[in-house]
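Hi support team,

I'm filing this because I wasn't sure whether my run with alpha-D-galactopyranose finished correctly. The job status page said complete, but I'd like someone to confirm that the output block is well-formed before I use it downstream. Pasting the exact inputs I used:
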Amino acid sequence: MKRTFLFPALASVLVLAAAATEPPQTLRQAYQKDFLIGTALGSGFFKQGMTAVPAWAGRQFNSTTPCDLLKWQSYNPQPGVYRHQKADAYVDYGRSQGHYVVGHALFWHKQVPEWVFLDEKGETISREQLLQRMRERVRELANRYGSRINAWDVVNEAWLDDGHMRDSHWTSVLGDDFIEQAFRIAAQELPADVELIYNDFNMTKPGKRKAVVAMIRDFKAKGVRIDGVGMQGHWGMDHPTLDQIEASITAFADAGVKVHISELDIDVLPRGPKMDKGDAVLRPEHNPYTSGLPADMPQKQAIRYAEIFALLLKHRDQIKRVTFWGLTDGDSWLNNHPIQGRTNYPLLFDRNNTPKPAWDAVVNLKRTAAPSGSGP
Ligand code: GLA
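And here is everything the job wrote out:
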């Protein structure tokens, strides 16, 4: 139903894109009255304490997330060993641009070193010891960056699609209150103005949605602070549906948190069941667009992006931020997932840093919606 409603409006948006006479706006300018627009930057942009982020990124976006460099494995690979240089450069970069700086992620079942869960003899540590190590990680980050990091993904990907908790080292040592303990520690150690977020993929699946809503309500009833939910948004051309996305935005907002679309990209390549199981062999049918997309695909992707942004605008009061996972198609993780070495086109900027039709559609959606007042 929503599709039929949005399509005529979007067709005119795309026509207007071609005919627009206004000077081009940046994404952040177009959405400045609605929500933050972010990008995620790989560690390669931060070398020897310096940033190599192109200047246009600072203008297009007003929020940044580090892809890896604050994850436990990257930041603190050995006991007492901290890789501060890149992390400092990342935070300095975000602050220098006036961005809303995201910390990603305090506790995740991936990219966490084994030593975190072991003592010197290689035995699994106790619940109390693990809680202490978690606290030390948060305290170190709080001392170093404090409110210069505006929000933290406190826990990443702890729920399964069916609403059960994911089995991990965290749950095997801590038990079912792992997420609650993580949020309690974050609230105690980080400054009060730092927002605390639960982040996950497939947040449109009913089982996961229900579990996350129940968790938020439980935390609020117990006085455990949670400020936001991150719907990662690794989406395809036709899934999830707009209705599914809307149901989750509404459910999380009704539970009393802000919604962050935290890792948005739109995959245009085929997925097969074998590939999802990690088939390592790259066959030509897995990688059909090595020398460019078919003529109609960029417009189809533009319509998909515009439909999503039209929905997000409808819920702008509930949405704090929309972050793309990567800067350009060339640096997207989807070139290597679920199989290495593909040529994917999931973002708004192409391999030459040029805005794609999807960028026009997203920006022009705002121009059409508010022709006289949305610009700077
Ligand atoms: C998940 C994580 C991100 C990143 C992506 C893949 O979504 O939250 O940190 O690792 O996978 O790039």
